[in-house]
Amino acid sequence: MSYAVELENISKSFGEVQAVKNVSLKIRKNEFFSLLGPSGCGKTTTLRIIAGLEFPDTGRVMLNDEDVTDLPTHKRNIGMVFQTLALFPHMNVYDNIAFGLRMRKVPEREIRQRVKEMLEIVRMEGFEKRKINQLSGGQRQRVALARALIIKPAVLLLDEPLGALDLKIRQHMMVELKKIQKEVGTTFIYVTHDQTEAMVMSDRMAIMKDGVIQQIGSPHNVYMRPVNKFVALFIGDAINFIEGTYKDKGVLSTDLGDLKVPELSGYTGKSVILAIRPEKFFLENNIPSDIDNVIEGRVIFSIFRGSFVEYRVELDNGQEMVIFQPYLVAGQKIYEDGSRIKIGWYRDSAVILSH
Amino acid sequence: MSHRREPWYITILDRIRSSRRIKVFLLVFLPFIYLIIFFFAPFIIALMYSLGMFKQVVYEFVFQPQISLEYYYRLFQYPGVLVAIQRSFYYAILTTVGTFLLSYPVAYYLGVKLPDKYQEMVVLVLFTPFWVNFLLRIYGMRFIFHELGFLNMILTTLGIVNDPIKILGTDTAVILVMIYTYVILMILPIYGVLEKLDKELLEAAATLGASPVKTFLKVTLPLSVPGILAGSLLVFIPAVGEFVIPELVGGANTVTLGTVIYNFFLRVKGTMGWGLGSAAGLIYIGLILVLSYLYIRLVGGEIRLG
Q1: Burial B125-134 (b: 16+ CB within 10 A, else e)
Q2: Are residues B164 and B39 in the same domain?
Q3: Three-class SS of residue A190?
Q4: How many CA atoms lie within 13 A of A337 on its CB side?
Q5: What are φ and ψ of residue B65, in 5° steps?
Q6: What average pLDDT does range B68-87 have in this prediction?
Q7: Percent of chain B beyond pLDDT 90?
Q8: Which residues on neighbouring strands pair with residue A190, listed in sequence order?
Q9: Which pLDDT band, with edges at 50, 70 and 90, does B301 fall under?
Q10: Distance CA A330, CA A333 (A)
């Protein structure tokens, strides 16, 4: 199988700081791939290495099976949407979008046609003559996208392009970006620190920390099967950890008693962490009869969040848990502060993480 | 609580503090008065002299209610005036072009290539020659350009010329010294624009397939036009009126408009000298205004056209 982008053992340092450590990645054709991580994790440097705006100290960069490691940016067929968008302030919308085609010496007739098509794709028809400073944030976003896409790049790189937008417009643009990606069928590599953006848009994503890739997988896979505590905490709204020692046959010994957990080999006698997402719990009367684990706790407080109720529950060992309960029926019971409740979950809704 | 009368100046300050209109008035009024006294009034007086509205009675200039273009007419009859005007513009244009060609690479390196932390220091170093008094620097240049001077020493030692060449007193000397004097006025505004230039724009151009040369021509250069515009006006306008440099490093063949005006006022003197000098000064101002306007229209338009 051939890939749109392949990184092989890429490392890059800036002075004393090692920004990217031995990163290898294979990004499939027409995939929406996100590089996700906190600031300073090396995601932007990785993107800039793919773009040729930085050159790696070691390793290889392949674009469409071609080694481009030493090729300067303008000779790689990539498109990029910058965090600041970097639209040319001295040009109008048309000239900004046409820039890449003019550099490729495409005849002006064809440029006019393609700019028109591109403006339709990003829903900006009729804005050709507008100046950049006459556009709203969302409109600039679309122009930057059109400018990068019109050159039909092998891969489109996006560096936190939605960062500057209001929440509502950002949510709208996320869906819009996803649609556009499906429509044009180009490989998108999207850098963000916002897990929601990555979850909403990505086919697959890589979570980075301190220059190292922690996990690569689909949003579902990363959410449900985080490989370590960092990923578990970084993805999703919240997660609960219970420490314990792994006994044989899927039993975890904790100070809450023995809990049934996924069966794993090679963990016997090891100290591990059980991670459970807040929405995986059943409370009181809703606990099914075939449930694997039931423990008790005391409600500290509850927050009505609209589509669900968030409980903070103190367990008998003093540990605090976050529990989300869907709010399905009007007038549904909300457990009062201080009341004792039973909490149940299936063994397979939890994940075992090593320390 | 007893009623206490505030001192009068406190009352006035309170009035000022509480009123936006008074504040704006004071802020604008004082500079405005200054401009009227030191800029508009001399201008009007010069205009009146050039139109023959003063006549000399013994040692005093007395107002006479008449307007005549006689001095303007006489000015162009005066030997050498037209040539001096032409020469002034010739010097100024070459100085502007020369300073631009020297400045742009320097400003580009400073603003685009040099890391931010070194920029201030290098700009400061560039300024150091200008800590020395202007006249001292010009006299220094005389030593360099002299027939037995530094430049000729190098040229003859290296065997580039056999005999010392005459530079002092020629156009070349005047233009070289003018470029040297004015170059910093060109560097600073261009540097100012390039330093603020968003470097991601250059990266964006590269991702769109623009080579470094294309990026420079299509992005960097058009975006530095405001700096080039400011720099060339800062150089060109005083360069047209320059009379010290031609006087000190030039000779009989480097008389400029500035020298002409200077001579009318201080050598010819009298209503004749003042009238002719004022007329020459107004022609200078008029030409500068027209040329600057055309230049801004021409080059400034480039910004909009891209």
Answers
A1: ebeeeeeeee
A2: no
A3: strand
A4: 5
A5: -75, 80
A6: 89
A7: 40
A8: A34, A158
A9: low
A10: 9
**Highest mean pLDDT out of A63-72, B55-64, B286-295:** A63-72
Inside any domain, residue B1: no
| B210:A74 CB<8 A | yes
On whether both B95 and B146 belong to a single domain, the answer is yes
Q: A179 and A107, same structural domain?
A: yes
| C-alpha dihedral (A185, A188, A100, A172), degrees to nearest 10 | 90
Nearest residue, CB atoms, A99 vs list B200, B208, B303: B208
**Residue among B117, B197, B208 with most chain A CBs within 10 A, to mutate:** B208
Tens of pLDDT along A139-157?
998 999 999 999 999 999 9
Q: Considering only CA atoms, which of A56, A72, A53, A75 is closest in space to residue A7? A: A56
Report how far residue B89's alpha carbon sits from residue A209's, in angstroms, rounded to the nearest whole number. Answer: 64
Specify whether B243 is located in the same domain as B288. yes
Q: What is the pTM of this model?
A: 0.80
Distance from the A78 Cα atom to the nearest Cα atom in chain B, whole angstroms: 6
What are the phi and psi torsion angles at A61 (to 5°)?
-115, 125
Amino acid at site B31: P
Based on the domain organization, do A230 and A296 belong to the same domain? Answer: no
Q: How many domains does chain B have?
A: 2
What residues in A contact B210, CB-CB < 8 Å? 74, 99, 103
Cα separations (Å) of A84 from A130, A200, B106, B200, B232?
19, 22, 27, 8, 32
The verdict on A222 and A251 lying in the same domain is: no
> CB contact, 8 Å: A261 with chain B?
no
State the amino acid at position A205 in one-letter form. Answer: M
In this prediction, residue A90 carries a pLDDT of 92
Picking from B207, B219, B223, the nearest residue to A73 by CB comes out as B207
CATH number of the domain residue B93 falls in: 1.10.3720.10
User: Per-residue pLDDT tens for B22-75?
Assistant: 878 888 888 889 988 998 999 999 999 999 888 877 677 788 888 888 899 999
- Give the pLDDT confidence of A183-213 residue by residue, as tens digits: 888 999 999 999 999 999 999 999 999 999 9
- Considering the domain boundaries, does residue B68 fall inside one? no
Do A29 and A11 reside in the same domain of the chain? yes
What is the percentage of chain A residues whose pLDDT exceeds 90? Answer: 71
Closest CB to B200: pick one of A74, A79, A84.
A84
Q: Which domain holds residue B58?
A: 8-63
The pLDDT score that the predictor gives to residue A303 is 93
Contact between B61 and B55 under an 8 Å Cβ cutoff? The reply is yes
Q: Are A73 and A213 in the same domain?
A: yes
Helix %, strand %, coil % of chain A (to 5)? 30, 35, 35
Q: Are residues A315 and A189 in the same domain?
A: no
Q: B18: how many CB neighbours lie within 10 A of its CB? A: 9
Q: A33 with A187: CB under 8 angstroms? A: yes
Which of A197-201, B8-12, B97-101, B110-114 has the lowest average pLDDT?
A: B8-12
C-alpha span between B106 and B190 (Å, rounded): 9
Is it the case that residue B170 has pLDDT exceeding 80? yes
Asked if the interface predicted TM-score (ipTM) of this complex is over 0.85, the answer is: no
Instruction: Please tell me whether residue B76 adopts helix, strand or coil conformation.
Output: helix
